[in-house]
Structures are given as structure tokens and as C-alpha cells.
Amino acid sequence: MAKPGVETRTRSSVITARAAATFEPVGRAVATARAFVRDTLQGWGHSDIVDDAVVLTSELVTNAVVHAGTAADVLCLRTDHGVRVEVADRYPEREVPLQGSAQPTAAPDRENGRGLLLCAALATRWGVEYSPARKRVWFQLDLPERPVGTRHAGPALPADLLPVADERVRVAVAQVDRSGAVTAWNDDAEHLFGYAADQVVGKQLGDLAAWPHTPGTGTGLAEALRLSRWEGSYGIRGMDGRVIPVYASHLRIRDTHGEPSTVCLLVREYERAVLQSPPRATGGDASGEGRTADPFEVFIGSPAPEDLDGLLQRTVERARDMLDGDAAFLLLATDDETELEVRATTGLPSARQRFARVPVEAGTSRYASARMPAVHEDLAAVPGAVPLLSGTGMRSVVTVPLKVEGRLTGSLGVAAEAPGRYANEEALRLQFAADRIALAVESARLGELERLRRGSLSFLVEASDLLAGTLDRDQTLALMAQMTVPTLATWCAVYTIADQSSDPYLSYVLHEDEELIDGLKELLSSVTPPDPVPAPGARVWHAPAEAAQRAALEASRRRLGEEASPLSSGIGTALATAAAVGGETVVLPLVARNRVIGMLTLGKPSDDHFRQEILELAEDLSRRAALALDNARLYSERTAISQSLQRSLLPPGLPQISGVEVDVIYRAAGEGNEVGGDFYDVFPIQDGAYGFAIGDVCGTGPEAAAVTGLARHALRLLAREGFGGPAVLERLNAAILDEGSRSRFLTLLYGELRPQEDGSAALKVVCAGHPLPLRLRQDGTVEPAAEPQPLLGVMEDLELYEESVTLEPGDVLLCVTDGVTERREGTRMLGDDGLAEVLRTCTGLTAGAVAARVLRAVERFAAEPASDDMAILTLRVPEPHRQ
């Protein structure tokens, strides 16, 4: 499908590497092209633009191989500033849909033309180039401005906006033991403050501090030295008596013997940028007016993490240390600001609380809203005031809102195990810190949402492609589960509903740990399925978690009371299964064509919760999966109906005829077909007479099958009414012509067979436009056994006659359809002569062996599969010694 070639250049041009591939217009070309672009960009180290590039490539290659119907040439070029991807097809006449043009507005559900609109939305630059033989669409994605070798970088600033420092920046390093005494003092500390190491080692660092409190806070130096990490300002009295304002960063460590100590880094106050993130210009002139300090400058004091989770986790740790709390938490608001999601905690069981949701308005009391600062001196007096802290042992708590431009974006809280720890002064300090960090948190959150949105778009493109690639119900169920686990959930279960009167049925279960699948299936089978509610969106389902808790209690009792029992081996599995289902479980309806056809159930382990963005992505996936599952159901039903009708066109079995061997081989051309335009029948008539027929209806499909059914059933009915061969076929001809425009012409060989007392068989045959039957004698001679006559379904007045043939012991009568004689290999055709040559080699074989040898000869005549239906009917009179 693809012919890739990768080449790296070292010349001085802006193109530093290239990768190219060609994709033929086949079904899997789009998915293969996406994989090629993803692997190429990740190999170049550009994972931050992979999602956009994959989405755009998918649309452009789809336009080429699906809508234009030509091969697609994909070229990836790496430049100094970004990546350029070019997609070329061989159909240059296709129109270019442009936004804002005078062209008529395209239908919103049209399948083609959206690739260029996506280019306009996602790409930095894009364009279309035409040549007489092809059209090339290209797009450019610029890389983030990031110096080589750094994971995170601030903006480039003019020289006059850079922090001012002496010619040499000196960082004093002092190490303090658990009692506050100095144990180490470096040369920069001696230069800054004038004290030699032997003058301060062993003395209290607090004795050197002129003003030991950070301005605006109540944290003293002694308290700061006991915290795990702290940053702030205070003053050091130098050797000459002057007070030197310093900015300090404290880190608490312990040595190999477990003894704690604190390492202090100190710089002059105006050089605090050495220990902090640099200020970022948000406006103003070159003089620096209008600049605002980094939001982390006062509260965090060091460069911001690259990801949102890292920023939030460090924020709660700093908040806890700043107020000397036992725990801290940070919640982010959902888009509608009605709920808050737990995103970071410290000192709390964070794994259990992560992504748990609490309402913004928790009640009617003074402290019930997250939109206002709140102080609870003792939570025991107001149970449930802070739902997040229920059962954690925390007694006092202070919470403040995170707001950006007056809009609630989150909540920050610090808690302590002792009551009465916090008052309004701590609330003001925490609010000041929250105001400084709110904008940075919101910016990082929006960045995460954008990355998630683009990743979700790529995920849904892949999911849609996979779901559209199958019409098998079981495979569709498996794909639904495999796409959700572990990407969206830890485990997944799919319930299906056969019809409106049926109950939901557990159809598929998957867990990321394969050893837990059987236990999970057993647990869910014991739970009443969720109600098939058609309302969109995810709803929480508590039954699995409750069943898991009961199973865990039962397993614990068995472990305590039956340790020596053989059943104990299954207790560990039961406990593991219960823990796997112990988190939040949500149900999403599978709605297709305004009918609930099932439910998609997603679960988390150990009291974990789903984040809102994941639920929205799962809802999008459920809509696509529901339509794919319903399409698979409709296809399965249609196939079952078609196969049932097709089977009704063939006789249920062959009769046992005394003194005559009968065998039939039938092959219908086309995938999924049991019956085509060819048919056969062998049936008893009366008084030891049997009818046999083999025919071929012109064409294929339902119309041909209708004529097949008409012919087979009419032949039986008319023959049993006592009509002879010519009369039977003339009346069948009239019935076919009565079908009008639905009629099809029919070639038919019909005969009557009567075994004789002398061991022979008497036949009366009518051949209406059908390939002539061939008779094989015992001496190996082959001859036609009938004369050709007009076919049926063309003329109204037919004059047919029957011919008599006697099969002696050892003779074979071979009847075939034109799928056998017209078997082709290039310009060669098997034909009547070739079939006769094959039949001559069948002397002495049984009827079944003759049919099998003819079929093998037909199949070996050409390498390609047969394109026409084939029917082979053989009648043989055995020799006397075989009776």
C-alpha cells in the first residue's frame, strides 16, 4: 500500500529532513497515512504537533483516495521553524471550498471538502498548488518557541527588561541543623555578609536575622526552617551592622543517618530572579512600565512546571507549607461553574479523591459557597460543610476561590487536624496567594483542554475508521471495549438490547488486567443491568460498587474463617475483582435511530472518579459506536434473511433412487451467497419415476433468485400433475413471461428417469437452451445426450419435444451449467470440448467422484476465483457386480 522513503539532509537549506510515501486508493490507506505521519513526527521529536498533523493528513488523504479516487503522495518536510506536510493526488480538476467565497454554501453533512477548512483552522499556513497532472495541498505547523535542550522556556525579553544584578551574582549557601544552628557557610555567604565560616558555624541562623518575618505574612524564620520547602524574603544583619534584604529558598533534607537539616540559598533581594521565574512582559513600553510580575513570583518562587498537574500539585504543597497545615487541596470548576473537580491534594488520600466532584453551592449557611473565602474553626461543629474532608480527621480549614476576571475557576483550601488553627488573617494570606496563581492555573487548564480536544479529535478519527471497517456484531462489540480500555476507563462492559420488549443483556466485558475479566463478568452478571434511559450524557451507576463491597466483605469473612479451606485460593481473586470495580461507574446509552440498543458502562478502580472531559469524549464515542453496532445488527439480520431465502431455493436433499447413483456439486459465486442464478433439483414424481432439472437464470441478485424459485417449484408441481416434459416447460415459459418486466430468460435441462428391471435406466430429456448433457459410456466414449432447443422466457409460442436416452450399466450422464463450460483463463476457455476431455478420464468412477473430478479440473483451469455460479449434476447406473 505504501512505498515510504526517508532521507535526512545536512545542507544549508531550511529543509533538514524529509519523509515520503505513496498510498494507493484502498480502504486502509487513510489509517496507514496517519500512522506514517505520526511515526515520522514522533521520530523527529515533534510530539507536540502530532495530533494536528494527523487530523489534517487524515482529511487530505481521504479527499485523495476516497473522493478523488486516486493514489495520494504524502511528503513530510522538517524545517528550522516547523513541519510542512504535502498531500498530492492525480485529480487536479477538483474544486477548492473557500470560506467567505461567493460559492454556494456546502451542506454541513457533506463528506468531502472539509480538509481545507480544517487547514484554515489548525495550520499556521496552508495552500493549494495545481499542475496539469496533479493537485498538491500543503500545510505548515510551526513549532513552539523553545531553545534547544530545554523543556520549558520563558519568552525572549529586550535587554532593558532583564533583571538588574551586579557583575557577578553571588548565591550564599548555608546549612542549618534541626536546632537552627549553622553547620556550613560558603564563600559567597562570607562575601555577602562579611562573616567568615568559623564565625557563624554553630550559631543560630535566627541570631543573624534582623527582621525574620516575610512581609505581609506571619511566617517567621524559625517556622520556615521547619517546613519541607519555603521561599520568601527577610533581612540579614551584616558584619558592618547594615541590614541586607535577602530573598531565600529553603529546602529541608535528611542525611544517611536520618538527621534532618535545611539548606538555605540566599541572594540579594533585588536579585531574587535568580531563584524565581523571570518576569514576563504583558504590555507597556521599553522602559518597563506596564510590566507585571510572573504570577508565581510571590507565591511559588520558581519556574512553573510544564504540565497542569505538576503546577497544581506544587501549588497545594506551597499552600500547605505557607499556612503550616496538615493537608491542602485544589479544585477546578467545570465549564458551567456548578461543580468543582478535585485535581490536586496533599496530606489527603488523593488517589481516592481525584476528579471527585462537589457542588459550588453546598448549602444555605454562610460558608456554603465556594465563590467566597471561608474559615471553619471546627468541622466537627458543622458536619458536611466541606464534603471533601469528610472522614479525613481534619478539624479546621480555610478555603478561598480562584477567580479570573470575576469568574470562578477553582477553589484552594488548607486544612489542619487541630481545631481553631485558622482565622481571617490566614484567609487573607491564602486569598492573596490564590489571586496571584489563578491566572496561571487557568492558562494551564485551558492549554490542557486544548491539547485534550485535539487529542480527542485524533482519537475519534481513529475510532470512526475502526468502527466503519467492520459489519460484524461481535467484532464491533470488541472494538468498542478495546477503544475505551485503558484510554478512557479501567474496565468496560457493553449491554445490548435485542428489541423494546427485551431486557439488557451483558454482551462484552473487558478489563485492563486480563486476569480480572472473568471475575468482573461474574460480578456484573449478579447485578441487575442499568435501566435503558435514552437521555444523553453519562449517569452514575452505584450497583457495581455496592456489589463489589459486598463481595469484598464476603471474601474477607471467608479468609478469616476458612484459611485452610481449598476455597481460599479464590479469595484473593474475589478481593482483587472487588477493588477493580470499587470506583466510579458511569453508564452511557447507545442510541441509534431514536432507539436505545444498549448501554456502554465504564468503570474506575478504588473510589476513583472520571473527569468531565473524559466523559464528554466517551459520549462522543458512544454515539459513533451505537450507529456502528446498529449497522452491524441490520447487516446481520439482512444476511440471515437473505441466506434463509437462498436456502429455500435449493432442494432440501437428494432422493435415494434404486439402481441409480445421483450426486450434485453447487458453487455460488459472490461473497456471502448460498444461491445464485443457477439451480438444480431431483425429486420423485410417481410410480417409480423421478424428475431431474438443472438450470441457469440470466443475471444475479433478487430478480434472478425470484425466477429460480418460480422455476424450481413450478417444475415439481407440474410434473406431479402428470404433464410430460414439453408441457411442463411450455407452462413454465408462460409463467415466466407473466412476470412482465421482472421476467428473466432461463436455460433449462429437464428430464424424467425410470430405473428398469434389466439394470438400465430410461430417460426422457428436454434441453431448452442449456449446455447439452454429456453421456459417458463404459468404453470411454463421450457424446451429447440431447439436441438444443429454444430457451425459456423469450418467446410465447414454444414447440418443444423430448428425447429418449437409455443409460446402460456403467454409463454416466453429466449435466452442468455454463459456469463450468465458460471457465476462462485469459483468452482460453474450457468449453464443451474441454469438458468432454475431462469426462473421458472418469470411466469407472462413481457419480460423486465424477462430479469432484470435473470441479477440480474447472478450478485448476484458471488461477482466479470463479466469477460465475456452477452446478454439476451426475447420474450413473452402476455395473451389476456393484449392486
Please characterize this protein's 3D structure.
It comes from Streptomyces rubrolavendulae. Its EC number is 3.1.3.3. Residues 167-205 form the PAS domain. GO terms for molecular function: phosphatase activity. The structure is a single chain. The protein is 31% helix and 25% strand. It is an alpha+beta fold and 883 residues long. The protein has five domains: 15-92 and 114-142, Histidine kinase-like ATPase, C-terminal domain (Heat Shock Protein 90, 2-Layer Sandwich), CATH 3.30.565.10; 170-274, 2-Layer Sandwich (Beta-Lactamase), CATH 3.30.450.20; 308-449, Beta-Lactamase; 471-558 and 570-640, Beta-Lactamase, CATH 3.30.450; 650-877, PPM-type phosphatase domain (Phosphatase 2c, domain 1, 4-Layer Sandwich). Strands 1-2-3-4-6-5 form a six-stranded antiparallel beta sheet, with helices on one face. The protein has a six-stranded antiparallel beta sheet with strand order 8-7-12-11-10-9. Strand 17 and strand 18 form a beta hairpin. The protein is elongated and about 140 Å long. The two termini are 60 Å apart. 35% of the residues are buried. The model is unreliable at 2-13, 94-112, 148-153, 277-304 and 563-569 (pLDDT under 50).
Element layout with pairings:
Blueprint (H helix, E strand, L loop, with lengths): L4 E4 L8 E7 L5 H15 L6 H19 L3 E7 L3 E8 L24 H9 L2 E6 L4 E8 L29 E6 L4 E4 L1 H7 L3 H4 L4 H4 E3 L9 H6 L2 E9 L5 E12 L5 E9 L39 H15 L4 E7 L5 E8 L3 H4 L3 E3 L14 E3 L19 E9 L2 E10 L7 H45 L4 H12 L6 E6 L8 E7 L5 H9 L13 E2 L2 H19 L9 H10 L4 E8 L2 E9 L8 H37 L12 E7 L10 E7 L5 E8 L4 H19 L4 H13 L8 E10 L5 E8 L5 E3 L5 E3 L18 E5 L4 E5 L1 H4 L2 E2 L2 E2 L1 H10 L6 H15 L8 E7 L7
Antiparallel strand pairs: 1-2, 2-3, 3-4, 4-6, 5-6, 7-8, 7-12, 9-10, 10-11, 11-12, 13-14, 13-18, 14-15, 16-17, 17-18, 19-20, 19-23, 21-22, 22-23, 24-35, 25-26, 26-27, 27-28, 28-31, 29-30, 29-32, 32-35, 33-34
Helix pairs in contact: 1-2, 2-3, 2-10, 8-10, 10-15, 11-15, 12-14, 13-14, 16-17
